[in-house]
Amino acid sequence: MVKFLSIYRRSNYRLLTAVFLALLGLVLALTPTRAQQQTLRIGAFLSVTGQGSFLGAPALATLKLYIDLLNLQGGLLGRKVELVDYDVGIDTRTAQTAIRRLIDIDRVDAIIGGSTTGAAISVLPIIEQAGIPFLALASSTALVSPVRKWVFKTSQTDRMACGKILSDMRKRSIRFIGIISGDGGFGRSMRAHCMDIAKNLQIKVIADELYRAQSRRVVDPLKRIKAKRNVQAVLNIGFGSSPAYVTQNFRKLGFDVALYQTHGVATQDFLDFAGPAADGVRLPVAPLIIADKLPPNDPIKPVLKSYMQIYQKRWEVKPSVYGSHAFDAIRLYALAVRRARSFDREKIRRALESTDGYVGANGVVKMSAEDHLGLDFNAYRMVEIQGGQWVPLE
What is the crossing angle of helices 242-252 and 219-226, to 10°? Predict the structure, then answer.
């Protein structure tokens, strides 16, 4: 009997010990460590590979660079900053999965990303439900119009680009135009904005043609535009390889009017691909494209120069416009944390919303409860391509 009780006590003790250790492990797993509590986590979902890599890769490189710089300066309010990033390509479902993981598993404090309009718009309901600051990089006006509580944006909008293009046309007394656009999300969205603004500026669209996005089959729609009388200029809305084909065939068909492209072609790749045919093309560009040609008194010039020098020193290549959007996003967020003097999401959101006078790579930002972008048309600059160079028109 004594032996039995001894065995029972030992077994019971081992059982209780095992239960205690299991519970302790669970508590420790659910309780943030001191290191975790002192880390501020920024999530990113970007198109780093595939068709959208020209958008996402420079943005990711910029985020890595500036988070390293923040940490060298002691982090934010004493906390180390950590980047948690996912490559989502251009797939909206992958983007949604990444966002849920960033929020539910990675427990990030803020999110930067959405290289493409489709990916960025697809995650908005998840962002709003989670109540987490989101700084979007895609260009669509729909991201911030209507205003959503937790959604902010750092890139110029496609509507702003339309306004810049059509204002230049009006200044040159162009009243009748033809529009040719890709049938993808970018083309459809921007075409709608351009049609609306053209009407407001009393510019009549007398030819309206479509082509399959990323296609080289653009000759027939161009011929139909050329057949229209009174066309004084042609506007192509697209990005990727198609605008270069439009430009080359525009010249081959002997158009004797101006050709306008959008900000979507403001890349060296377009200049290389379109070649001499691009001479004379007019388009709006982000300030980074002509940073060395900005007036000396332009307030954003020194900011741009600093960003470009640091980026090139780190990565040994020049940054792109899409990297500059991430540059403004991470700096706006850091500024909001410092102004809020808190890691509370609502306080940081309010600090972002009250941004006033931030000098960034894309303009001077003034946000409000009614404006979560804070840029005006001056965030784009009109240029004309001459001899393979971007020449400012203003």
Answer: 50
